[in-house]
Structures are given as C-alpha cells and as structure tokens.
Write a structure and sequence with these properties.
The protein is of the alpha/beta class. The chain has three domains: 170 residues, 3-Layer(aba) Sandwich (Rossmann fold), CATH 3.40.50.720; 164 residues, Dihydrodipicolinate Reductase, domain 2; 82 residues, Alpha-Beta Plaits. Helix content is 37%, strand content 26%. Helix 6 links the parallel strand 5 and strand 6. The longest helix is centred in the first third of the chain and has 18 residues. The protein is elongated, with a radius of gyration of 24 Å.
Amino acid sequence: MTFMNPIQVGLLGIGTVGSGTFKVLTRNQAEIRRRAGRGIAITMVADLDTARAQALVGPGVTVVADGFDVINNPDIDIVIELIGGYGIAKTLVMAAIAAGKHVVTANKALLAVHGTEIFAAASAKGVMVGFEAAVAGGIPIIKALREGLTANRIEWIAGIINGTTNFILSEMRDKGLDFGVVLKEAQRLGYAETDPTFDIEGIDAAHKATIMSAIAFGTPVQFDKAHVEGITQLQATDIRYAEQLGYRIKLLGITKHRADVDGIELRVHPTLVPAKRLIANVEGAMNAVVVHGDAVGTTLYYGKGAGAEPTASAVVADLVDITRLHTADPDHRVPHLAFQAGSLADTRVLPINEVITSFYLRLQVADQTGVLSKITTILAESDISIDAVLQRESAEGEKQTDLIILTHDTVEGRMRAALSQMQALPTVLAPIVNIRKEELN
C-alpha cells in the first residue's frame, strides 16, 4: 500500500495532555499510519514556554509562542486546542475554523458554553471539530453516542464523569472521613487542583453532561439550563446511612428525555445509587457512563477520565477520524451533535422543580412520641409516598435522634414544599439533609 504525505498538525498548548498526545502519536506512528491511510505528524507547537516546549518535542518541530502563527501556517491541516477555558481558546478555535482548518479539542468548558456557535461555524466552513477527549477522558463515549448507538432513541444517561469527586467520595466511604479532610488528601496526592472549585462544585461534570445531552437528544448545547450541585455539603454520616440502606452516594451527571412532557432533564448532583449497580462500584478517580437506549437497553462505558495518555488516546482517535474523512463530502460526515445540523430540536430543558426523582431524607428530630407521625402526615398530604424508614435509637441521655426516610418518585417542587413544612416543625432540630436517589433500572 502506498501512503500519502503525512497530515500536518499544529498543537496549541503542550501541558499534560499536549505532551501525552505528542508521545502517543510518536510512539504509535506506524500503527496510526496503517489505520488512517497516511501519517499524522505534529509539526508545529504554540506554547508560552517555548524553551520547555522545544525540549519536549525536539528539534524537528517548530515551536512558537503565538497560537496565530500556527493557524496562519498554510501547511497545517488540523489544529489541536489544549489550552482550556473560554477566552483565548475560543478566539483561536474560531480563527482556525475561519482559516478552513479542522479542529480537535479537549475543552469541555468551551464546548458546553459556546459549542452551538462553534459547530455552526464549522459546518458553514465545511470543517470538522473533534471533541472525544472533552468528555470522560479516554472513554470513547462521544463515538458511542454519535455512531455506535445511532439506531437507538436514547432514553437516559447517568455518568460518573469527574474523577476528583469520585476519588473524594470513595475515600469518604472507605475511611469514614468528612469532606474537608479528604479534599486535603486529594490535593496532596494530585487528584484535586489547588483551586478545586470546578470539580467539587459539579461544574466540570455539568460541562460534560451538557455535551452528552446535546448529542443524545439532538439539541443545541445548553449549559446555562443545567442544574448543578457539588459535593461540598456531603457528610460522612449520610454516606454511612446510605450504605446501611444498600446504596452508595456518587456525583452523577444525569440527562433524561421525559416523554410525558416532551422535556429534557439535565442535572448534576450527589445521588444515591443501589450498591448492586455496576456504576455504584466505580471507585477512585475512574469514570463510568451508563446509557440506556430503547433498542440496546443499558450499556456501560468505563475507564480513566483524565491523565496524559488516556486523554491523548481520545485526541489521537479524533486525528485519525479527521484524516480519514477530511476529503469526504461534508454532508457525508458524522454530524457534530449526531443529528443533522438542520434537524436539531428545541426541546425544553426542564427546571429542577419539574424533575421527577426519589429522595433520601435525614432529619435530626426530638426523641419524643408523635414526631414520625407529623412528618409522615406532611409527606402523605403532599402525595409523597414513603419507601423505607430508618430510625437510629437514641443513646442513653440523648434527647434527639436521626430519622432517615427514603421516598418513591415525586416531583421535585412537591418535595421542596414538603421539606419547608417539615423544617418548620419545632421537633425538627437541624436543617434537613435531602439527597436525590436514582435506581437506574
């Protein structure tokens, strides 16, 4: 077989993922050439630390400080954006598209917020934007949703899509420690950033859930409509009670199509999951995504969600796809959001008050008769049915106890109203803990 000249790639940013991408592409060059039909070579790199970048890539690669030098180079066919964030990254991506260059990015924040604009510009210019690495690192979930499950009507997705929070929750469960203690340990071990806000407040997971939701249901990306909660308020006490009841608490990114109202749920929050579910047993910094389709049923995708080479695996896979398809008629390529650009739906994203789920409630109550009766009456009058009740026996001399209630599915707005009534009872002695519960059947 005769191979054509290599595709030339420009790399913007050679940090952890960028250096991993260069290593994987170099190490597996022969295998990649056999798969793509031609070589793929990073021939130009832009990074503010040019000396460090040059040391990483060697003398055969041109290194510059200005990303626009890469974009303006007529020999560059594909631009990889690994800078991150919403600012200069967006400017460079849009400039690359305007210059007629294909783009590969791992920037979930950029796509979750500006993806609709970016994909529209790419379609108008006839170029491709590859973003497998933007969601769940090395797990090929974007390809699965866009291609492998294309025969299905996707019904729901639930994913552990942030390794930092999953590591923290795993440690809290295993060691019985509170959130703050485990966060410091995660930072010491390098699992959490010095400023971990995007991870622990659920924002990173929401970026990824937004992208998956758009692909699953054929809608524009709508990060601003996602409901986002992090794990900072979780207590070891609730993790322990959940375990006793047969559940584990995970930070999940969830998106569902609700046929009853023709709406989409898009939410990230701590969630009780039955311990017997495979996803409940995903520990440490690993990621997992469960997808339920009407034809295939439930499928699970598991692997490393971050790291230099796992993420590089996804970046290089996009490079190979673009190399194979860059000469194809744009109308015959896989659409960015799985559905043809003119066929995207304006399906409503439901506000959190309209979401339907079940709940775990922990109430610290006075240890006296009639307390449970008043609480169950409020729930019954709110048309909220109880699934299970666990009441901790008070130690000798204690005048308060924990009351744990699991409910059946209910509308969130109804639960919020009931919580307000229960909180106002004089026998409820502390803020009520409420955590959503998903059976993931």
